[in-house]
Amino acid sequence: MNDYELRKFVAPEFVFGYGAAGLAGRHARNLGASRCLVVSDQGVAAAGHTEAVVRTLHAEGIACATFLGVSENPRDTEVALGSELYRAEGCDAIVAVGGGSPMDCAKGIGIVVANGGDILDYEGVDAIPKPMPPLVCVPTTAGSSADVSQFAIIRDTPRRVKIAIVSKANVPDVALVDPLTTLTKPHKLTAATGLDALTHAIEAYASNAHSPVTDMFALEAIRGIGTALFDVLDNLHDKDARARMALGSMNAGLAFSNAILGAVHALSHSLGGLLDLPHGECNALLLPFVVRRNYVAAPHRYRRVADALGVADSLAAPDDEVRDALFARLGDMRRRAGFDKGLAQYGVTRGQLAELARHALEDPCLSTNPTPLDARELEELYAEAF
Questions:
Q1: How far apart are CA 42 and CA 97, in angstroms?
Q2: Is the CA virtual torsion 376, 377, 381, 383 positive or negative?
Q3: What are the residues whose beta carbons fall under 8 Å from the beta carbon of 177, sequence distance 6 or more?
Q4: Measured over all CA atoms, what is the biggest interatomic distance in the chain, rounded to whole angstroms?
């Protein structure tokens, strides 16, 4: 593609740095909020983050109702319950506190209270007619980047699939990215969300909808996450490494929100939807195989990815050597992060691969994969990860 084709770039206002979460009340007040629905989950609440944000709202004279009924993969039914609570409490704004699940659920609630109907009515791209109420996001993980993206991923419980809702209407009004909130994350969650962020950056850089602006954010994210993730995993209390991971995740989010993603996410959404598996782990498992399959379609891009991850001679060696070295590096990162299982060990059966591939084929993320993949090829990728 021509690097200077027309491309739009959307992003929320964001505040990055130690203590950003403490500004939630001020920003909600600036948006005209008088009663907020605070959307979070039980784990985030137990870590104290939800109540800390509520206190900042109360300090600004803003009343709150709290919704903690969010699963790891937020469901259509949870969006419906949150929407009912929003209306019953007379709320006029939403504050999301947590990882991708509370933030995606909060987006779903905002969509439904503004537009009516069921969240499943808004599947796809640019299908939201009316803007949602003001939304402030306080992320507590460094991975999903839902706080800066135009994506919301919701589990369709009747069909057991994850749907993607992609719209500028999903972009929060304000993201408060505070590395200190990630200090309470346990090792496994830190690893999974970190590899999710790395996947975002790599897929955005290889996307057929990339631009010079998204490339800038994606490459910086790859470089930052490639070193910061293991610094954090070696010392979960390293504030500097946590900050570098939070920055890497935010950069990756700004990239993928605009360049979109690829086959890793299409496969991962299908897998997580059918079997309710953790999204970051699904991405970590599938990423090396998709990169190896995609390499031939964009070798110059994957060379840059390899270089950003410190793979030796990645800008000069023959393509097959760089492809294999990058595959090995990504596999090593996955294993070093603690994810060395194949699909079978997650409970997937070979009889499910064709169904998984059919669902992945319908995912909008597949449209920006650097090379077209059909159902048979998607099934082969699952088989390689088995």
A1: 11
A2: positive
A3: 14, 15, 16, 17, 20, 139, 147, 246, 247, 250
A4: 63
Contacts of 17 (CB under 8 A, 6+ apart): 177, 178, 179, 243
Instruction: Please return the burial class of 172, using the count of CB atoms within 10 Å of its CB with bins 0-12, 13-18 and 19+.
Output: buried
Cβ pair 138, 174 in contact under 8 A: no
Q: How confident is the model at residue 5 (pLDDT cuts 50, 70, 90)?
A: confident
Which CA distances in Å does 148 have to 39, 97, 191? 17, 14, 21
Residue 1 pLDDT: 58
- pLDDT band per the 50, 70, 90 thresholds, residue 278: confident
How many other CB atoms sit within 10 Å of the CB of residue 264? 28
Q: 63-99: per-residue pLDDT in tens?
A: 999 999 999 999 999 999 999 999 999 999 999 999 9
Token readout for 244 is: 């570098």
On the question of pLDDT at 228 being above 80, the answer is yes
Q: Evaluate whether 205 touches 305 at the Cβ level (below 8 Å).
A: yes
Contact 208, 263 (CB under 8 A): no
